[in-house]
């Protein structure tokens, strides 16, 4: 903040331009990145969801095809004949049935290459393709497959496992069916083993780079072993099944501090769920290029703005720089200097009012010069129109720096106060004014001084009888007293000064009192006020001479002062003066 205070107004304006433009670019870029990322993630989820639903339909169609093939198998004549003997418990034609069913087994496996093997368990013996080697060490009733069918009593799909019925220990997924027959047949079960690796390829399909597709069962476990560590970690967490309550959908979840996207769709023929998991970072990897693009645009905008803002700042400061040049000429006592501008903005208005102020100063000086040719009028005007150069310099200098700090409104108020001060002081060439105008004159003077000496003092003006405001009075009576309070009474103060002006009537006379809480004066200093001429500003002796010119011996002047308790000056004059 101190760095900014030390900068010129031009630099501050340029920094403001750059800050606003840079902030706008960054906000726009950030919002664009956020919207792009959200849209890309939404589209990726939708695209993946469509893929998952399509994959689920493909798997459903494949499983339906398997079911249809097995239905065709169960309504074939060889299978029907075998079931009749199984229902009757006739084992005499076992080998005939085994030979007849071998052809049906082959047809089913040809119709669906995913079928690894088909096994039929009956009370009259086991039936399976002759090309398969039966694992004689394991009975069907000793396998967990038999336990599942006995427990659930329905056609079931069994997750991936090692084939226990045939040698080779191949990984398979099993479908266990009960036969379709005219009369109920107990103890007959059909086991269809599907190649796990072929089924896995079917499920994974075209899931895309960075996405892992797999099947979950109703308990939230994978239908077949999955190699991806991400899938194993997500499944072991046990939260996936709780996220997939609706038939299909998508959502995001956090795992090890990273965000992942989940898509799923339930199968229709089995209580399995097609699931896909992919990293949000992999989906948004293309946004890296968007980040760099936004950064490049921001840098380019900042560079262009830096060039443009310099020219724009110079253009905006042309009126202010012109006004500064005029003020410097005025400081060098060149009152012919005038501000010129073709603009009508606030800075130009300040300059034009400064011109009017200079014109009024010139008029005032002309009036004083003309008044010197007249004896009594010249003496009065010479005394009343004295203008303290130090006061004018302080006032103009304060206006200059307030304009330099872009405090336009306070500067305008000071210019108007100074203009009003001169207007009231001149009083259209008339030496007699009203008390209300004289109070307005001293109020404008005190307003200017409070702006020049900020925090040094405050003032109060009290008129006890409102009718006194219309009384006649010589102009510029109160301002010299207020000036002495500021220049001498508050000389050693930095703050806390107080000036009180009170107007009160007393029969045929009325009193003007000016009080301050300044440093006060010794008795010899009070006596000297009546005789000494002031080097700057108005001397009290001059004020006494003017009062004598207007009121003769009827004017009374009192000074009450002591070191440390301030000064009070009272002027008592008749309500009708001697002119």
TrEMBL record:
GO molecular function: phosphorelay sensor kinase activity
Domain of life, source organism: Bacteria
Record keywords, A-Z: Cell membrane, Kinase, Membrane, Phosphoprotein, Transferase, Transmembrane, Transmembrane helix
Topology relative to the membrane: Multi-pass membrane protein
GO cellular component entries: plasma membrane
UniProt-listed PROSITE patterns: HAMP
The protein's name: Histidine kinase
Organism of this sequence: Paenibacillus riograndensis
